[in-house]
Amino acid sequence: MAKVACNKTTECAPDEICSQGFCEKPSAPSCRTDNQTCDTVSDCCSGMACQANRCTLMKCLESCDDANSCTRDSCNTTIGQCAHSIIPSCCGNGICEGGESCASCAKDCGCASGEVCAEGACVNEVENELSVIGGNVTIEACRQKALNEWKLKNYDAVIADAEGCAGLMAEPIGELGVLQNTVAANQSQAGKVKAASLTLGSKQEEMYAIKALAEAYKKKKNTDKYLYDDLAYLQDLKGALAHMEQSIYLLYQLKHDSPGEWRNDTQGALFDDYANQYRGVNQEINALYDDIGSYHYKYAFQVDPNDPLVIDIVDEMNGKPTGESMDLRLLKFVYGSVNYVSDPNWKVDWVQPPAYTLMMDQGDCDDSAVLLASLFLRAGISGTELCEVDTDSDGKYDHLTVGVKQSNGLYSIYESTWPPSDYLYYKKGDPVPTEPAPVDEWSYPAKILYCYSPEETVSYALAKKCNDGTEYGKCSVEKPMFCDEKLGLVNDCERCGCDSKYPHCAKVGENKGTCRVCPESGDVWIDEYAVCCPRGYEEYHPEDSSCWER
Fold first, then answer.
1. Which of 104, 116, 329, 502 sits at a 20 to 30 Å CA gap from 297?
2. 15: which residues sit within 8 A by CB, 6+ positions away?
3. DSSP SS3 for 36
4. Are residues 286 and 324 in the same domain?
5. 258 in the Ramachandran plot: left (φ > 0), alpha (ψ -120 to 50) or beta?
6. Span 185-197, mean pLDDT?
7. Residue 18's beta-bridge partner residues?
């Protein structure tokens, strides 16, 4: 059979190819190219498809767009596949390249878990948070402004600034609280977060203290002494110092529990500032005691079983029992914690509260006794009292100690400030113990003049006056008020009289006890019925509440 002439394979039979101008069967298996006949795709060369028994060139999908602006998209028709080439220095190409940072391109230069982007660099989240809070100029500027106003005695400005500043600190304090949970397992970071939290918390409490003090000073300045007496003023000052005690406690806790995070250039300086503020206000409180005229009040008001340091110490001892009784453990604690230092202001004999004594690690006998009594009361040791002592037999009080009243009415005396060589507290010839221990009253060589309960003394001092400072059973300077022990201030014009503005005393009716004035100058006061009638109508008929001519 003669060969069929051809110009292309399509002119040949399906099992033939066009070769050298004639249709013929391939001599050996080979791949077939574009438009050559095929039975299956395996007959065609790579990149070809078998369609309608003809090999055809493969094509890409309708679109090679990968929706990535950082790639150039194209179709390789040789293989029928899309190609995507990366565009250099494009944010989103998955490569953190020069000129890119976590700030400019988080897609390519994003930070790892536990890191944040700060000023274009990935840094530890905790370190960054501490840096931000520590360098918060707004907070410190606010605090300094409030303290400056405080020094200038601009009390209205102090109240507003200190309150605003304390509020400003609330958010970062909350953030630190969240961080503490995050880094609990990392001792190094946890210590730093705790230091920042305690320091900032102490500053916030300082602002609350300054605000409360300013309110008390403003009230004292603008209020008549009889309406804001020494005891009321003293209580307000003590309430303000409770915030300062919390400030001191937070830094005390940091100093003793995390010495590695204690830095003298920051927290140490703050600690000293608090001590000076505390001492200044407390000296004023001591001067008030002298005005009140009772040393019992002076010491009793300083006993504070709710002092945060006192609570901390007693709770810690309760959690670590040693077999010794609590009273003996607390006595040893005070003896070992407080160095005896004679009061430099002995003429006014100012008394330190527990927080200050523990903070400074020093005090004299009354400071130590106040601290020990606070601890005893916190620990629930019943019968705890303060005892005034005459050590040189001149009949005058010259020493303060703690006594615990026993069931037989006698006291066990607890000395916490004596040096071992001091003979005043032990009978001559008796061995002086190497450690402090209670002494029975009958064997105590010095004379106990008087013991009293701090709680009862404070309660009596506060309870025996009405809230304007008037003693029970007496008339207030503000007529016609009378200070009743059970009812407080009540109207009693029969007993306390009336002032010139309201000269008439209502002795009957629903207004009994109050002072009245007739509405018109010519009206007549009818004392029997406590009413006013027009001039000439001086007969009053209560049946119809009317005035009649005589």
1. 329
2. 25, 37
3. coil
4. no
5. beta
6. 79
7. 23
Structure tokens of 275?
């001590």
Hey, what are 451's tokens? 């013991």
Q: Which helix H or strand E contains 484, and what residues bound it?
A: strand 481-484
* Other beta carbons within 10 Å of 135: 9
136: exposed, middle or buried (C-beta count within 10 Å: 0-12, 13-18, 19+)? middle
First to last CA, the chain: 166
Q: What is the DSSP letter of 117?
A: E
Cα 181 versus chain centre, distance: 17
CA within 13 Å, CB half, 217: 20
Q: What integer is the mean pLDDT of 313-333? A: 90
The DSSP call for residue 443 is G
Last residue of a domain, one of 252, 268, 293: 293
Contacts of 269 (CB under 8 A, 6+ apart): none
DSSP string, 154-208: -HHHHHHHHHHHHHHTHHHHHHHHHHHHHTTT-HHHHHHHHHHHHHHHHHHHHHH
Q: What is the mean pLDDT of the chain?
A: 83
Distance (Å, rounded) from C-alpha 527 to C-alpha 543? 17
Q: Which two tokens stand for residue 201?
A: 């918390």
Q: How many CB atoms lie within 10 A of CB 486?
A: 6
The three-class DSSP label of residue 234 is: helix
Dihedral, 26, 31, 32, 34 alpha carbons, nearest 10: -160
Q: Which amino acid is at 205?
A: E
The secondary structure of residue 225, as a DSSP letter, is G
Side-chain-side CA neighbours of 161 within 13 Å: the count stands at 22
Q: How far apart are CA 32 and CA 24, in angstroms?
A: 14
Dihedral angle computed from the Cα positions of residues 14, 18, 21 and 24, in that order, rounded to the nearest 10 degrees: -60
Burial of 56 (0-12, 13-18, 19+ CB in 10 A): middle
pTM for the model: 0.61
Domain range for 315 is 305-463
Do 239 and 208 contact (CB within 8 A), yes or no? no
Do 356 and 270 belong together in one domain? Answer: no
Tokens of 27: 């001599």
Q: Are residues 136 and 249 in the same domain?
A: yes
- What is the tally of structural domains in the chain? 4
**3-state secondary structure (DSSP) of residue 291:** helix
Ranked by mean pLDDT, the top range of 130-134, 279-283, 442-446, 526-530 is: 526-530
Residue 210 resides in a domain: yes
Write out pLDDT tens, residues 89-111: 788 777 888 778 888 888 888 88
